[in-house]
Amino acid sequence: MIPDQWYAITRSQDIRNDRPVGVRRLGMDLVLWRSTDGTLVCQSARCPHKGANMADGRLRGDTLGCPYHDFRFDADGQCVLAPCLGSEARIPKSMRLDTHVVREEAGLIWLWWGRRTEPLPEVQIPPEVRDKPELYATSSWSQPVNYTRYIESLLDFYHVPVVHRDHWFNWFDYVGWSGTAKHLGLDGRRRYFAMTKVENSRLSVDGTTLRHDFDLCQEGDPTNRAPMNVTFTFPGMVHIHTEPFDVTIWMTPIDEEHTQVLFRWYEDAHLKKALRLPALRRLIPRMALFAQKRVQEVQDMRVVRQIQPRVTGRQVNRFVAVDELNAKYVVMRDQLKKQAGVTPDETDGAYRVDDADLGADLFAPSE
Ligand code: FES
Ligand SMILES: [Fe+2]
C-alpha cells in the first residue's frame, strides 16, 4: 500500500447518525460513526479496555459506547466515562481509541493513510470525475483478490471481447456497443468479437493522474472502432469514458488478499432530458451496476482470482506496447512508495518489455 494517500473507504450514505458501522480497510478494523451535528468520526474498532468490537457499540450523544462495559469514547478517541468507576473517576489518557483523519467528498468517505503533515494534501479527484454533472448510482462490494491485480484488470480493455462474452446478458454489450443501426444491432456480436486491436494509444501524466486515450478496433475495418478514455488516479481510481457509458471505480485494499470496490455508474447523457425525475434517471445506472456485479464482474474475477503472483510489481508482467498505462502504474506505484519512505517489496530492475516501443519518457520520473 502506498502511504501518504487518501483512500476511498466507503460511501457517505453508508454511515448514518443512529449507529456505528464497522469496516475493515488497509488491514485495519475501523469503526465509523457520526456525532450529533453529523461530523464523521473514524476510529480503531478495538476497545482499549478488553478488546471488544466498538462497531457493535451504541451511540450515546457525542460519544460511542463500547458493547462490553459501555466505556464512552469521544470524537477525539479519549475515554470520557467508565461507568464501572462512576462519573467522578479519573480516566487515564491512555484509555483511548486511535482516531483517523477522514473527509467526505464526491459522495465518498476518504481516509488519510500516512504521516499527519499540516496541512494535508487535497483528496485527488480528477476534473472528469469531480466536475461531472450527470447523476449517478454507486454500489460497493468486495472481492477476494489483491487490489493491485484488481486495478490492473481495469487498466486494459482489449480483454473485453475475450472475457466478457457467452453470457446472455453480454448481448447488451454486443448490440449496444458494436451493433449498427443498419443491421438493427444484430451484427453486434460479430463486430464485438472482432474488436480486439488497440490503436492510437496515447498516455499522458498529470501529477498522480494518468490518462490513456486509444481506440479499440477491428483490424482492417475502419467502421468498427470504439474510442476510449481511461483515467487512473492514485492510489486506486479508474474512470472510463466511452460512447455507451461512463463509470468510475475506486479500489481500496481491505487487506492484501481482499479489495473493496466502489463502482459508480452515471446516467445516460442522451436520456437526461427525457427522464426528468432523478429516481428515474438513476434507474439505468442501478440496473447497470446490478449487471456489472453479477455478470461482468464474475467474468473478470474468474480470471483475476487465478492470477499469479497475486500482487503486481516490477518484473512481474511482460508488457506489450499497448500496456503503457499498466506499465506506468507499476512504475509510479514504486516511485510513490519510495517518496513516502517505503522500501518497495519488489526487486528493482529493468522492465521486461517485448515488441514494444514504449518511449523513454514512460520510465522517466513523473513530473
Ligand atoms: S471492552 Fe470495551 S469497555 Fe470493556
Ligand atoms: Fe473486464
TrEMBL record:
One of the record's GO molecular function terms: dioxygenase activity
Gene3D superfamilies xref list: Naphthalene 1,2-dioxygenase Alpha Subunit, Chain A, domain 1, Rieske [2Fe-2S] iron-sulphur domain
Domain Rieske: 6-111
Keywords, in A-Z order: 2Fe-2S, Dioxygenase, Iron, Iron-sulfur, Metal-binding, Oxidoreductase
Pfam entry (one): Rieske
InterPro entries membership: Cholesterol_7-desaturase, Rieske_2Fe-2S, Rieske_2Fe-2S_sf
PANTHER family noted in UniProt: BLR4922 PROTEIN, IRON-SULFUR DOMAIN CONTAINING PROTEIN
Stated name of the protein: Aromatic ring-hydroxylating dioxygenase subunit alpha
Organism: Catenulispora pinistramenti
